[in-house]
Please model this.
Amino acid sequence: MPARIVIGAQYGDEGKGKIVDFFAEKAELVARFNGGNNAGHTVVVGKETFKFHLIPSGAVQGKECCICAGTAIDPAVMIEEISMIEKTGRKTKLSIDGRAQIIMPWHKQLDGASEQAKGKQKIGTTGRGIGPCYADRAARQGIRFCDFADKKRLDAKIKEIAPTKIKEIEKVYGLKSEFSVESTIKEFSKYSSELAKYLSDCSEKVNESIDAKKNVLLEGAQGTFLDNDFGTYPFVTSSHPLAGGALVGIGMGINRISYCTGVAKAYCTRVGSGPFITEIEGSLADQLRKKGAEFGTTTGRPRRIGWIDLPMLRTAHMWNNFTDLAITKLDVLSGQKEVKACISYKAGSKVFDKVPYDTEVLAKCKPEYKSFKGFELPPKISSFDDLPQEAIDFLRFVQGETSVPIKIISYGAERMQTLDLF
Model:
């Protein structure tokens, strides 16, 4: 079976966890290629709810899972998630690539200190140390999982790096360090002894699985418009959530991915700062936020709410080359008298049908909308034809404007509340 990648087409939080869980039923291996515990996937199975930040959603179905080189790992979070799965009687079939970066105590403290120093220019990071961890990777002073799994190398790396980080915290930011060389060695030695057994070469594992014609599923964190290069910079994440990011994050060739599923909500949300052209506020936003449980899996922060943005989806398709779309949370729009879709942006006399590359230009854009009659979803949905005509019209319009076929429609948190149009 060919490899499929699942990509967030908006600002993250699109419901990728549920879609990965949907595809994972037929997958033999699920690989996570970017990001850290600054994002979360929620998977609902009957009365059980799983909130993952690092381990791929396929773990719920007992699939073999890989945490690949492009990720940033908080060992404490990893141990907690393994425990969460195993407490349910499930076994974790987990491999962690030796090249993956380890989030250290200095990364977390520097993340918070740097964000505070920005004042009104805050990016809205989660404070989980992701940015500083990736910065250290680029500066070639990161600690990789292969270092972490070897106690001697780990101790040496901590002794080499920690004193400089303590000076930076104290001299640049005027703060007292929350860690010491000794406390870090003690804490991380314990983590190492628990996680070292998962050390692997995930690039080799994924490529060999594809060569063996296994069904491989690739999972990323965040969404297209948080990409470090192509997103709404500087209000972006520190890795690459695009389909191309998987090639580097896993270590694989450009012809290895056969299918690319873009995931988008039937509306749009954003966490943190940055331009959000279709943002709505007031009672309607509060209503949709409450109905959609739009609060961050990682931070609990309320998400900003907006209408679906078609320039975004067109641009996301251009960058990722989606073979199909999954539209999630259609149920949240149920009961509205009117539903809107942004068809273009306008800044002065200029009209954009895709997202402009300059974030300052984007911030000046105003949305141009097409309105649709609202709809009420029936209590039971077995096929596409069970949807109200108004919902069908809305979805067909989105499909036509993006030139990507909609193959999955999610209308609730449960696994069964999913229309499979493949």
